[in-house]
Amino acid sequence: MIATPAVAATHEPAWIRRLVIAVAAGFVGLFVLVPLAAVFGEAFRNGVAAFGHAVSDPAALSAVRLTFLAAAIAVPLNIVFGVAAAWAIARFHFPGRSLLLTLIDLPLAVSPVIAGMVFVLLFGKQGLIGPWLSAHGIKVIFALPGIVLATTFVTFPFVARELIPLMEAQGAEEEEAAIVLGASGWQTFLRVTLPKIKWGLLYGVVLCTARAMGEFGAVSVVSGHIRGRTNTLPLHVEILYNEYEYQAAFAVASLLVVLALASLVARRVIARRVEAS
Amino acid sequence: MIEVRGLTKRFGTFYALDEVSLEVPGGGLVALLGPSGSGKTTLLRILAGLERPDRGSALLDGVDLASQSARQRNVGLVFQHYALFRHLDVYENIAFALRVRKRPEAEVDARVRELVALIQLESLEHRLPSQLSGGQRQRVALARALAARPRVLLLDEPFGALDAQVRAELRGWLRRLHDEIHLTTVFVTHDQDEAFEVADRVVVMNRGKIEQVGAPADVFEHPANDFVMRFLGHVNVLDAELADGHARIGDAIVALGSAVAHGGDTRGRVYIRPHELDIARSPAAGALAARVVRVTPLSGGLKIELSVDSLGSRMRADLDWERGAALGLQSGEDVFLSLRRARVFA
Lengths: 277, 346
Hints:
B: alpha+beta, 2 domains
């Protein structure tokens, strides 16, 4: 047999490399860059003044406020749940542990529309607890509480899923050391556990925030689309679009895109710190 | 003083500790020595309050530890892998026990400086654990455990993860430290040299039970049973006929030690340490014919591996340097083994 150059075994021919790179770059261009450019192109089609007008419209500002408010309530709830669930799953073996681990993923598996409908079924006018709630003057569906509930539901896996593998890998020895050194449970959490998991937690918070602000399906079902009152940013974009106000729809949509890009950058930066810890 | 009474701990069907009773005198330095799975670490973790026993009790200076949580016990524990707080520097690691007790800053600073000087890491106070060598981390873990002036110091395989030279240094250092501060100390190890070098008393454990307790020389010279005999260094185990305080092994006859408990049956196993054999070129009464298989120089002398055809077994003999040099043995040589001492166990 004639000896072939050793390079052949480990290096693909140049044309295959170029082809693979071209295919990947082509897909990214077609499905990411072109739509991104289209969003910003459409947003500024009628000039900066029209863009400014669309995003400073009272209904748009109200949607921005509601979006941030819903995220500001849902994200802290997720932090509490995520840390508690990750702590329980990574540190203890209890009956139902693997069931809990599976159920945490449920919101990722089920369609958000179904999540929204479940809340309508529970809290709506004809729902299970709805009549009792409205008798006491509490409005959940078509109001802020419903939007917060739906947002919390679709985002609750993010923090827990980020922390469970991290806490399992880090083990509990440092916490044991802290307790033997005289720390209380709370001191151990604040002084040892939290610093160990802070970058992983922050990463989960960024994912959770991005999803909370971008959520459409579940929130759409429970919000009722009351302009200026129960509209979040994605819902406002839909309304504008359905009313053929394309330029305004894309102007508001570009705000969401900016939020998404910011969260991508934050993820890149934080992911490096997670690896380092 | 630590008193352990009838301590039992089960994990599933596995008995990590089985009715263990033990006393550690105040100011003593005791080694728990045994193979992995013998229960020594479990005993240490129960003393620290990280595990709860199923039965039995542990008392510290007469007070039942079960009435105190781990954080109330004020016990110093050094983990095998140090478990230093990775996000805190050397100074803050050592200060931790004082910080959680909310001691005044001046007191914290004075105590930390004292300990940093004790472990000779003055210039590295502001390093993170990841920037330290294994031996330095070990010393920081020890200083951290000592910071709140614990009533007892517990060390779990303290030198296990270090290379041989650092280990030898730290052993000596730990012993000197103990001689200075006289803190009641229990340390866990599977290494008999370590146990013998550092401890006043050695507790040999196996399968959740204590096999023997005694001073190092005592345990080595008078092992209580075959497990202790085998665990503490190499031993030649041979079948023998036993009669009248003598053992006959092939052609060789050896007098059995006085402290022999032996039943009536005439066959048994005898245990002979490598240094309890002598090698000669010429035959003598009661000597075994053997052939040298391999000669290996060790730090303390020569290790000679031999085959004894009449018994169908291999044996090991250790000679000191002078004796080894005088004989000048080569592999393949025919020699004669005389047995100076042999032990039997019931």
